């Protein structure tokens, strides 16, 4: 496949003696097509030769080269990738070299579904031989775009199918140090603590994770991701959420600073809805936040929070109004 | 405030088809079936579907059908579930589903269901909740949902639910507004919305609205007109659309128009394309913008087209 990289990428099939026997076949767009396609000349030629070999089902080295050329011109053409896999299977070639080729193509097309699917097909065939390489490859792509959805999907598949969990939590930590707002890295962190066979699962990880998350919240209280992560750590266990003193405490700390109180207020509201009893300190802090909302009695903390959020988060005023109107009866009665 | 340049958009859609030399068209060759769906659904929402020759389109669509029953993105390409739904949707637009052998198409789709209930996109086995939606939507339009194991299909989608209330492409995948549309849509079409935590998901979805009024697809990402469709349709299906600021979103979409030459882009002042033109117009339709046909949030087809299929004329 070395020639794939040399002449294959540049010389058109009409200029190559080894393609002299192939009669190119043009795309049939129908009689007077709805969306007539304008084709660039090189692309037209390569695709015409591709169609010829594809229809003959010629699984040969030259067909493999041609698929490479066609993919470079349009990596989205899934039929070309399909045919390439059939050829790779038929010729029984070294698939590690195929990973090299895919890597080169992927660098400029990191959001193309076909490339990632092809990559997985190759990795699956290689099995454990591919583990370290695939983790490294996705790291490389994520270093260019840390939220690339395809790269994350591929990485999760690699971990689950081939393993390599050992460094994953550290990797998440590293990415969150680079960008604490990276929701993909928070998601991966949750994926690791709940699914890694090397860790003890959500409950075993909860304490250390709560500490980690609280630090992240205090550093950036306006960051949506760690607040949601914190809720996720108590998935299906609101009693523990309410009874863990660290959760109201982080709300208190953020509210004391007064900047960016929206997510802290929202968490406090959730706590109240789950039965948390707030003391005077909470009431004073909430009351002290501007803008003031004079119409709520001071004793009705949950309602006051909703009114503040209506103002502070005006885009979602309707959501907060709905929260206010649907507060659990228990809160309304006890004037929490 | 700018208004919807409806006539310009009609002209733009028709001109995309005729523009020679455009690299966009070369790259689109293999997904022309999607392009036709985006373009023609937009025309229908604008009340101008009669600007195209339906006979020609239908003939071309049927040439894209493979012996397996699935449709390809273009003549001579391989079949894929993505293009099969677009083909069925476009035939539905023209009230021509009767040209199809329902069993044949349905068997192709049913054959893509895996043991765990998920769906592959084609014979090569890529799995994604996008394909679950496509399979369910397509089979529902053909009245053939009984060909698959719906319970397993639903369970797989539920296994992709995250703690933020959203859904990813596979279990553990990050919540993403596009995947959420697919999962909520599939659950809506199978009467399984009780699996959705509507208040939690609704909050996550309305958090997607940013100061400019536009919607993003994940936290801390840029707004993009396409999410006007993915986020809004999901919010409507779970009955929480009033939680966002509609006026600001309308303004954002209208600001993404090319007022002179027609078409809508992802963000203000970017280049327009057919994909974002569809999502912009479809989003405005969901926002009940004047002069547009209503679109069904689950089937992604005009409401009158869906009614024709399920209620008759």
UniProtKB/TrEMBL annotation, chain A:
Keywords: Magnesium, Prenyltransferase, Repeat, Transferase. PROSITE patterns: PFTA. Its cofactor is Mg(2+). GO terms for molecular function: CAAX-protein geranylgeranyltransferase activity; protein farnesyltransferase activity. InterPro entries: Prenyl_trans_a. The keyword Transferase applies. GO terms for cellular component: CAAX-protein geranylgeranyltransferase complex; protein farnesyltransferase complex. It catalyses: L-cysteinyl-[protein] + (2E,6E)-farnesyl diphosphate = S-(2E,6E)-farnesyl-L-cysteinyl-[protein] + diphosphate; geranylgeranyl diphosphate + L-cysteinyl-[protein] = S-geranylgeranyl-L-cysteinyl-[protein] + diphosphate. The keyword RNA-binding does not apply. It comes from the Eukaryota. Essential subunit of both the farnesyltransferase and the geranylgeranyltransferase complex. Contributes to the transfer of a farnesyl or geranylgeranyl moiety from farnesyl or geranylgeranyl diphosphate to a cysteine at the fourth position from the C-terminus of several proteins having the C-terminal sequence Cys-aliphatic-aliphatic-X. Belongs to the protein prenyltransferase subunit alpha family. This is Protein farnesyltransferase/geranylgeranyltransferase type-1 subunit alpha. It comes from Erythroxylum novogranatense.
From TrEMBL, chain B:
Residues 4-300 form the Prenyltransferase alpha-alpha toroid domain. It comes from Erythroxylum novogranatense. Its cofactor is Zn(2+). It is an enzyme of class 2 (transferase). GO terms for biological process: gametophyte development; root development. The keyword Secreted does not apply. It comes from the Eukaryota. InterPro entries: PGGT1B-like (IPR045089), Prenyltrans (IPR001330), Ptb1 (IPR026873), Terpenoid_cyclase/PrenylTrfase (IPR008930). Catalyzes the transfer of a geranylgeranyl moiety from geranylgeranyl diphosphate to both cysteines of proteins with the C-terminal sequence -XXCC, -XCXC and -CCXX. Required for male fertility and root tip growth. Binds 1 zinc ion per subunit. This is Geranylgeranyl transferase type-2 subunit beta. CDD domains: GGTase-II.
